[in-house]
Amino acid sequence: MVFMPEDFDVIVAGGGISGALAAAGAAKGGAKTLMLDRNDYSEAGKKTNWGWVCGDAVAKTHVDFIYKELDLKLTEPVLDVKVDGVQVISPDFTRKLQFEGAGYSLDRPKLAKVITDFAVKNGVDYRPRHEVEGPIISDQKVVGVYGRDEKGNQVKYHAKIVIDTLGIASTIRRKLPKNDFIENNISIDDIESTGRYIYKFNPAEGADTNYYDPKNAIIHLNQQLAPGGYGWVFPKSGRRINVGIGTEKKSLEIRNAKLNRKDTLHMLIDQYVRWNPCIKDPTIDGQDSNGKGYWSVTVRRQLDSLVYPGYMGAGDSMAMPNPISAGGIGPAMTAGTMAGKIAAEAIASNDTSMEFLWKYNLWYNEVYGNKTAGLEVFRIYLQSLNNDLINYGISRFLTEEEAVEISYGNIPKISIASTFNKVLSGISNINAFKNLLYCVKVMKEMNEHYNNYPKDLGSFDAWKRKVTERMHEVKEKFKPNPI
Ligand SMILES: Cc1cc2nc3c(=O)[nH]c(=O)nc-3n(C[C@H](O)[C@H](O)[C@H](O)COP(=O)(O)OP(=O)(O)OC[C@H]3O[C@@H](n4cnc5c(N)ncnc54)[C@H](O)[C@@H]3O)c2cc1C
Question: Which of 165, 192, 271, 397 is deepest in the core (most CB within 10 A)?
Fold first, then answer.
């Protein structure tokens, strides 16, 4: 049976973090807003049948942002555990770098419930158990979405603006007409396969904080354990941890070929858990059927534009996770909030043109997006280093302050002369250092380029061409080389 299309000001497709906040922002701003998600109301925002698959860690700044912009204050038990920061540990354990500043380990299912209720309380018409199959296009403009309702009936909804928050595999983004603003597909080289377990366990008294730290989110850089990515152990309340691995396909293939192994992501996670002496007698935490799951996450800059006629995107659908940490909760919170608010402004001003929506590109770029291309460059460089080079580089190439600056996407002034004095033995180390200098140069160039993000559509093409060319160059120069 086919129903007649219903009309809305704004449709938000996908009720995850970015979606619920975008919908809340739009409705709060007075727009007649529909939110569609495939899950039951009680399981809002669940990514896949595996659950709310995530490491659950987020920096405090993002939580503060939604309080400021939406007046939504998150508290315990959503903010499950407060952490001092993220500690990145080198493969040989000689260097531990403190990144990110204070943050939280979240209870994702509880977060989903709170933000969904918040959206509904603010007037969002939320229809769960709806499968969004694609955009309705008229004259090269998005004018709605089609899909299936809870009974499997075909449905169509029309709106002046559609906000795509369907996550990495978005059925809207992938079906947009080919255009210069939004890429339909994301390269497999820019995607990490990830998985994680939430375990109950018995941490030993005085456990080694290189492996488990109740006050910090720990990241292990190790190209053998997690080729092209990293392993993590994040604390949760009640003697629980979130432990997982992210790996890049080519890096894993190269590593397996060199070691004559056939390890899969699942095997890597199990090996990582066994490798960790602090994780004794773990059992999967069955709460919310969210104890074990696998999914993908992008590690590139967000799409060059986040808008297209009639369309805005936020969160994983726009490849927003941080290229170094894969942290996507914060960007999803920030971008979802912004997209909803700007959509509401556009409706109120009776101007939903792409020129109006462009404000969203500028705002996101100013608050978060302007560093991500540089961070993508650094991620590509990092994936070209084996464990020895990471160990060597982390202790010789950069001071702790410089490394932390880079992780924020800022450009440290690396003194070539003094570094050469400290560095250098071995041709591969010298090459890796020269490559770092090149990498930092391109990061700087990208940061400056993003600080000149086009103010309007007219100059977008030329601006984008430079980004595409430079990224291509970097990928040609630095190939994955985990072992
Ligand atoms: C293993 C793993 C670990 C991670 N760890 C961290 C971490 O520690 N910190 C961090 O900041 N980030 C982490 N991330 C990334 C983070 O989880 C995401 O960036 C975040 O969930 C993005 O939110 P979103 O709302 O944009 O998308 P999603 O969370 O993917 O939400 C999309 C929503 O749309 C629904 N949906 C999808 N397709 C359809 C459809 N066709 N029809 C109807 N509904 C649909 C989904 O069911 C879901 O409800 C991790 C990711 C993974 C996979």
Answer: 165
